[in-house]
Amino acid sequence: MKLQIRMWLLVALLFAILYGAITGIGSYLGKGSITSYIILSFAFVGIQYMVGPWLVSMLMRVKYVSQSEEPELHQIVTELAQKAGIPKPRVAISQISIPNAFAFGRTQSDGRVAVTQGLKSLLNKDELRAVVGHEISHLKHRDMMVITLLSVVPLIFYWVAQSFIWGGIGGNKKEGGGLGALIGIGAMLVYFVTNLLVLYGSRIREYSADEGSINLGNPPYQLASGLYKLVYASSRVHGSARGQEEIHKLEGVKALFLNDVSRSWKEVRELKELDTFSNGTLDQNGFFELKFKEVKLGASEKMMEIFTTHPNVLKRMKQLAALA
């Protein structure tokens, strides 16, 4: 409930910013009314809400699979959904090379859980169950719908900024061309601020989903181990030119993943003390010792976290160890 209140407050704040911007631009162009501005604001968000799952399916190359095709995955999803008290989501395989998992959909009854091609061969059954439990928790908390609504606002401001600064809106007028450029710069600043708010919303929901997976009966170490394997595998994908290209294409939807794949190479270094043999496996004793250690981030790490879709992975490991 606490998470949902914070997320919906973010939606209200971003909608207010969007309405204010539409009103300002409409007044500058001399078109529209208060009623039309409200309708337009809702229309932008509504369109994103309707087409969001389709866009995710297209970008992630999602293929829905039957129980006969993926019996183990279906069994895990069915059992965890029953424990969570939500309708069983549709089960899918994402045809991308980055090992990961994600949940999306408009509502709980429209929920979908997908794992990428390389995930099942990377994790053991307990780790897979813990990772899927994390995604089921996103559906239970309904935060995937809120993130879908939130993410459209920065995109609108980015489009407005491009239109006014580089698209020539207002530029053909002898008077007002400078004002048009000023609006474009203002829109770019608002894009920056609203994007930070969306990133904040994305980060706080990850802690809740981690805890949600534990509440569904998954041991904290299994989730932490699965998370570390994903970070380690993502860093290897990030190290190839083809992998970097794929990560770049998925930049707009990477908030759906279990970890920030763009930062995996750095996160592996942060967790190197927990990988005793440097083989991509989390040391169990080192993980449990985190429960009694203080995790301190430097100024640069704290600053970087503000610009990421996911919390600092070492902080997540510390929280999971505390739940052990």
Can you walk through the features of this model?
This protein has one domain: Zincin-like, CATH 3.30.2010. It is 65% helix and 5% strand. The protein contains 13 helices and four strands. The protein has helices at 2-29, 34-59, 71-84, 119-122, 125-141, 143-165, 177-215, 220-238, 241-249, 264-270, 284-289, 299-306, 313-323; strands at residues 62-64, 90-94, 101-104, 112-116. Strands 1-2-4-3 form a four-stranded mixed β-sheet, sandwiched between helices. A hairpin with a 7-residue loop joins strand 3 (101-104) and strand 4. Mean pLDDT is 85; it is low at 171-176.
CATH architecture: 2-Layer Sandwich
Main-sheet strand order equals 1-2-4-3
Assign the structural class, choosing from mainly alpha, mainly beta, alpha/beta, alpha+beta, or little secondary structure.
mainly alpha
Overall pLDDT: 85
User: How many structural domains?
Assistant: 1
Multimeric organization = single chain
Terminal Cα separation, in Å? Answer: 23 Å
Percent helix, as a range, is 55-70%
Q: What is the CATH topology assignment?
A: Zincin-like
